[in-house]
Amino acid sequence: DRVVADGDLVAMSAGVLLDGWEGSLARTWPCGRPTVEQRDRRSRWNAHWTVLVDGCRPGARVGDLRATAGVAVHGVGCGYEGLESSAALEPGMVIEVELEAAGVLGADTFLIGAERAERLTAFPDAGAGE
Hints:
The protein is α+β, with helices and mostly antiparallel strands. About 20% of the residues lie in helices and about 40% in strands. The chain is built from 2 helices and 7 strands, in the order E-E-H-H-E-E-E-E-E. It has a 5-stranded antiparallel beta sheet. Strands 1-2 form a two-stranded antiparallel ribbon. Strand 5 and strand 6 (about 105-110) form a beta hairpin. The chain is globular and about 45 Å long.
């Protein structure tokens, strides 16, 4: 309902379905050069994101990840796959993790490995200092 202007933050979420398999991501980008306040918001988001992704390990409960405000977690594969909060992450699972914090939205797809999560999403991400 309005033109995006220099200084705005724009959040977009996109997905693709190929041969029955779903993948999606979300990004927030500043229009034009980011302000100091936008860099601060992105930096705060990054701090929350790092803790969240570090928690995506085998044995972690989906509900524990979702306990943080602004977090969504679901399975990825043949479309959107709901996960019960009591479900534990297991090696080989593919999940999408989304975080909305400090006015920034981001989401990526991860493969749960034997020890940690591997980011599968290959689209670039705006850094806090850009």
